Amino acid sequence: MTDTVTIPGYKAGTWVVDPTHSEVGFSVRHLMIAKVRGKFEKFEATFVTAENPLESTVTAKAEVASINTNEPNRDGHLRTGDFFEAEQFPYIEFVSTGVRVDGDDFKVDGDLTIKGTTKQVTFDFEFEGFQTDPWGNYKAGATATTKIKREEWGLTYNAALEGGGVLIGSEVTITIELEAALQA
Question: What is the mean pLDDT of residues 142-148?
Answer without folding.
Answer: 97
